[in-house]
Write a structure and sequence with these properties.
Elements: E1 3-12, H1 16-27, E2 32-33, H2 35-38, E3 43-48, E4 53-58, H3 69-75, E5 78-86, H4 89-98, E6 103-108, H5 111-117, E7 122-130, H6 133-136, E8 139-147
Parallel strand pairs: 1-4, 5-8
Antiparallel strand pairs: 1-5, 2-3, 3-4, 6-7, 7-8
Length: about 150
């Protein structure tokens, strides 16, 4: 399995706008709205590709049924997940399965979804979210990201 480094970290926050302002000022991060990925889970999402950070916060008014609320209540704001860029996500997933690591969720976007929601930045975007919180204190995601051009 070839690992091409860390793609981004995912940080759980309570206030998305405040956190975007903080990381924009600190890192010069430019954020893209990505709420379409988290809305079914009660999460609003902003991704900064240039800074390698994704911010996730409960949607205001939906805190009680938000998938992030238990994490925020137990641990507070902080690193939720580390996304590793791998050459082949399916091969990386097989290694995880061989180590008895379960998959929580998977995404494999079509080019139409990439163009609509990710500004057409990629020709391939596939992720496997692994259940590694108990082993390392945060989730691990194996992602295959092929940029256009």
């Amino acid at each position: 399995m070839a690992v091409n480094g860390v793609n981004r970290i995912i940080v759980a926050v309570r206030d998305l706008e405040r956190s975007k302002s903080y990381y924009s000022g600190l890192l010069g991060a430019h954020f893209y709205e990505a709420n379409w990925t988290g809305e079914p889970f009660g999460i609003e999402v902003a991704i900064s590709w240039n800074a390698g950070i994704e911010l996730c916060a409960p949607i205001p008014g939906r805190e009680r049924n938000c998938a992030l609320t238990p994490f925020l209540d137990q641990q507070g704001e902080g690193i939720l997940n580390v996304v590793f860029n791998v050459a082949n996500a399916d091969d990386a997933l097989q290694r995880a399965k061989a180590a008895d690591i379960q998959t929580i969720n998977a995404v494999d976007y079509t080019q139409a979804e990439i163009d609509e929601h990710l500004s057409g930045l990629f020709s391939r975007y596939k992720e496997y979210f692994l259940n590694t919180g108990a082993q390392c204190g945060y989730g691990i995601t194996l992602g295959q990201f092929e940029t256009k051009g």
